[in-house]
Every structure is written in structure tokens, then in C-alpha cells.
Design goal:
This protein has nine helices and six strands. Strands 3-4-6-5 form a four-stranded antiparallel sheet. Strand 1 and strand 2 form a beta hairpin. The protein starts with 7 loop residues before the first helix and ends in an 8-residue tail after the last helix.
């Protein structure tokens, strides 16, 4: 699945073109007025002072007209510099924090041999060691607000995904009407094949409240969505961005990407796919796993 976010340079070009046309139109009107002289209305009628609408300095931008962004538009002109996203071992977007897994894009999946270094967090759940302290801090902050929040899922190995895949395929096959191979292809098409679950990265975590609930309306998840970027996490599958993630909205599923990327992604209301594709469009980075 190739994501095609809007090019930030498009906005600049559009503004220049629209501004130029507007300027020409204004100049034509002025020249026309000079050639025919002032009208009687110009001489005898003063505009009431109450009808004059002042323009603030910040709004008085020559050559720009008011227009609404198309639905879903994202202005990527303030992307953080790629070189600020890495560390001493993995510079830029090749950094481990930005590992992309998208089950519907069959080029972005995990290999069977990928075993991240994991650290126990609580209740038998572990998280990738390099981000474990961030998860602990995130949980502690939520609990200090008086919320009861628990982890419901973190790491899922390739073998566990394979077991799930076989179970889903067998269930579909048992319903009749298709072969086992066709059932497996259908489950694969839905993005549930081994290696297609980003929990294998060790950087994904699912939360629930005291009732085991994981809905957008749950107060604890509302708070966590608002503050997750402060701890380097994003809401991985937001509502309304399914076309980019290939995944249904999942309000309890968060993903560690580091504070720089998380702040940008959450502020823009976009996804990890869109964030990385914005760099792809500039031709600066290629992502393949």
C-alpha cells in the first residue's frame, strides 16, 4: 500500500499562483477605473465608518485568498528534520523507533527471526527494553491522575501469530464452501498472516480500564490519547485514518515512536504511515522491511 500524502510544496505553489492571479485582477480594475474616471457614487457617497472592517497585520498577506483545505489535507511543511530523529546507531528514519508494520502492505511485515530485547513491565507483560522506561512513565502518569489502567497486550511472537493464523484459517474453512488454501488466502488478505502484527516489534501496547474497556469514550483512554506524545507514544489506529493504516480504529492500541515523532503525529492527527510517507515523497528516505 503506497501512501500519497499531499506535497507541502504544492501549497506554496498554489498560493503563489492564486496570489498572482488575484494581483492581476486588482491591477486591471484599477487601470480600468483610471481610464473612465470616478463614478458619481465615488464622489457623493462616503462609506459609513461602521462598515469598515479592519484587517489585522497578521492577516494582511499580499496575494493570498481565503480557501478551505480539502478534507483530509495535511500540511507537511513543518516535518522535523530527518537527521534529528535518529540516534548514534541508527540515524534518521532507519531508527528502530520507526519500524513500520502494516499487514495490508505485504512489503512491511516482520521476519520470523525478529526477536527484540524485551524487559518485564508488569503482570507478565514485557516491552522492548529501549522503550520500557517510557512505558512505565506513561502508566504511572495515568495512574497519578486517579485512573485505573492496565496492559492487555504487548509483545506477540511470530510463532504466536502463526498459531492465530492457522486457527483463523481453520475456522473459516470449517464453515464450508472453500478450500483450506482459499481460507488462508482470505485471512492473509485481511492482514492477519504471521509477521503482520506490529506487536512483534515489542513497541506496541494495548490498554484497558478497570472494566476491561477500550473505547474512545473511556475517560482514561481519552486522557492517554491527549498526553501520550509526552512519553513518546501515538494512538496507532485512530478513527478516520483507516485508509492509511489498513486497520480498523483501535482506541486502546498505542505505539512507541519517540517524543519527536509522537508530538508531530499527534498534533497533526495523522498516522505512522503518513509520517514516513511524507519523507518518502521528498525522496529522502526509503522504507522497506
Amino acid at each position: 500500500m503506497k501512501i500519497q500524502p499531499k506535497n507541502p510544496h504544492y501549497l506554496k505553489v498554489r498560493r503563489i499562483v492564486v496570489g498572482g492571479l488575484a494581483g492581476c485582477a486588482v491591477l486591471a480594475v484599477l487601470l480600468s477605473g483610471r481610464s473612465r474616471g470616478p463614478s458619481p457614487e465615488d464622489i457623493t457617497t462616503d462609506m459609513p465608518e461602521s462598515a469598515v472592517t479592519g484587517v489585522t497585520e497578521e492577516d494582511a498577506i499580499p496575494g493570498e485568498l481565503d480557501w478551505e483545505y480539502p478534507e483530509g489535507w495535511v500540511d507537511y511543511s513543518d516535518l522535523p528534520a530527518a537527521e534529528t530523529l535518529g540516534d548514534e546507531n541508527q540515524p534518521g528514519l532507519s531508527n528502530w523507533r520507526y519500524l513500520l508494520v502494516n499487514g495490508l502492505d505485504r512489503t512491511n511485515y516482520m521476519r520470523p527471526s525478529y526477536y527484540p530485547d524485551m524487559t518485564p513491565i508488569e503482570a507478565g507483560y514485557s516491552f522492548q527494553t529501549r522503550a520500557a522506561e517510557s512505558l512505565r512513565a506513561f502508566l504511572s502518569a495515568a495512574r497519578e491522575q486517579g485512573f485505573t489502567v492496565s496492559i492487555s497486550r504487548t509483545y506477540m511472537s511470530y510463532q504466536d501469530q502463526k498459531t492465530r493464523f492457522n486457527g483463523l484459517s481453520s475456522t473459516l474453512y470449517d464453515q464450508g464452501g472453500i478450500t483450506l488454501a482459499e481460507a488462508e488466502e482470505e485471512i492473509t488478505r485481511q492482514g492477519y498472516y504471521p509477521g503482520a502484527d506490529e506487536h512483534q516489534t515489542g513497541l506496541a501496547v494495548n490498554f484497558v480500564d478497570e472494566n476491561g474497556d477500550a473505547k474512545f469514550s473511556t475517560p482514561v483512554l481519552a486522557w492517554m490519547t491527549e498526553h501520550c506524545a509526552e512519553y513518546g507514544f501515538i494512538l496507532r489506529y485512530p478513527e478516520g485514518r483507516e485508509a492509511y493504516t489498513g486497520h480498523k480504529a483501535e482506541p486502546g492500541h498505542y505505539r512507541y515512536v519517540g517524543e519527536t515523532a509522537a508530538e508531530y503525529i499527534m498534533r497533526k492527527g495523522i498516522t505512522l504511515e503518513e509520517f514516513k510517507s511524507a519523507y518518502d515523497e521528498e525522496g529522502s528516505v526509503t522504507f522497506a522491511w
